[in-house]
Amino acid sequence: MGLLSLSMREFRCFAAAELEFSPTTNLIIGKNASGKTSLLEAIFLLGRGRSFRTPYLGTVTRAEANGFQLIGKVTSQTVPVIIGLARINGLLEARIGGQQAENLAQLAHTFPVQLIDSQSHQLICGGPRQRRQFLDWGVFHVEPAFFPTWRRFQRALQQRNALLRAGKPQREVDSWNGELAAAGQLLDGLRRNYLANFSITATDWTERALGGLKTSLEYQTGWPNGRDLSEALQESTTRDRKAGMTQVGPHRAEIVIKVEGEIARERVSRGQEKVLAGTLLLAQTSIYRMLTGHSCTVLLDDLAAELDVGHLGRFMEMLAETHAQVHITAIEAPIMVARQATRVFHVKQDKITAMV
Length: 356
Ligand SMILES: Nc1ncnc2c1ncn2[C@@H]1O[C@H](COP(=O)(O)OP(=O)(O)OP(=O)(O)O)[C@@H](O)[C@H]1O
Ligand SMILES: [Mg+2]
Hints:
Blueprint: E1 3-11, E2 14-20, E3 25-30, H1 36-48, E4 67-74, E5 81-88, E6 91-96, E7 99-100, H2 104-110, E8 113-116, H3 122-125, H4 128-142, H5 146-165, H6 170-174, H7 177-209, E9 215-220, H8 229-235, H9 237-243, E10 254-259, E11 262-263, H10 264-267, H11 270-292, E12 297-300, H12 309-322, E13 325-330, H13 335-338, E14 343-348, E15 351-354
Parallel strand pairs: 3-13, 3-14, 8-12, 12-13
Antiparallel strand pairs: 1-2, 1-4, 4-5, 5-6, 6-7, 9-10, 10-11, 14-15
Bound molecules: adenosine-5'-triphosphate and magnesium ion.
Magnesium ion binds next to helix 1.
C-alpha cells in the first residue's frame, strides 16, 4: 500500500529519477545537501499538490529547467492508480488515472500523505492555525461531507468579510449569516465526531511516547460556549465591523493540547515537543486506517536527530503499529531505524541508488 513507484523530472536537484518503493519501510540515506528532503518533498507534493518547504512552486523546478513532472503509482485505495503532477510554464496540472483532476482535494484523497519533520513541533508551539489544519486533515480524509461543507463555509466567510471590509450596511453583512452559520455548525459537528475517535488513540499514544505523562486535547469551537453560531454572529457585530472581518466561527477554533494539565508548550522540552507532535501525527494515520480500512504514507525527515534512544525506540514501535508505508531519511540511520527498513536508497550527487 502507498506509493509504489515514482518518476521525477527536473525536480529540485534531480534531473531525472525512476524509483520503485517498498510498500512498507523505505530508508533514504545521504549526506547533507544530497537530496533527501527533496525526495520527500516530491512525494508530499504528489499527494498534497503543495510543498512543505515553499508556497512558490517555481522554486522546486530544477534550476534552469522550465517545469517539473512527478508521476507515481499509488495503491492507497483498493486498486493501483497512476497519479501525476506537473508544472510547465507556470501552470500546475494534476492527473489521476489519465484524467485531469478536478481539484487538488481529489489528489489528496487518492494519495494520503503525512509529514513529520523538524517543523512538526509547530503543532505544539505554533498558533491555532497549525492545529486546525492538523485536525482538518484528519476530518477531510475520513468524512466525505467535510470538503464540500468546508468550501461552502469558506465562500460565505469570504463574502461576509468582503462586505465588512468595504463597510457595507449591516443588513448586507447579515445576509450571509444564515449560510455561514449553517455550514459552520456542520463543520463543527464533523470535527467533534472525528475528535471523539481521535482523542482516545491520541491520548493513549502520547502517554506512551512521553513515558507516562498524561496528555489531553480540548476542542474550542471558535464561538462562545452554549451559543448557536447564528446568535454568536449577531452578538459579534460591533467587533466584526471594527476588525473588518468575522471574529467568530469554526475558522477561529482551537485544539488546546495539555500535558499533565498544563498547556503543552509551557510544560514540555523541545525534544518532547517533537515526540508529542510526531505521535499526534502518527495517531492520525492510525485513525485514518481504522476508519477507512486504507493505509496512509508517512514521510519522516531526519527523525533521529534530537531524539534519544528511548524516545526514538517508542516512536518506532508506534510507527510500526500504524501499518503505514514509511519513507524515512537519515544521514546515518540508527540501528533501530535501519532494521525496520525493507528497502534502502543512497542519495549521492543528486543520484538515487537502491541498495536492497
Ligand atoms: N530548484 C533547485 N534546483 C537545483 N538544485 C536545488 C534546487 N533547490 C534546491 N537545490 C539543491 O538540492 C540539494 C539537495 O537539497 P536537500 O534539501 O534535498 O538536501 P538534504 O539531503 O535533505 O540535506 P540535509 O541533510 O542538509 O537536510 C541542495 O544542494 C540544494 O541547494
Ligand atoms: Mg534535508
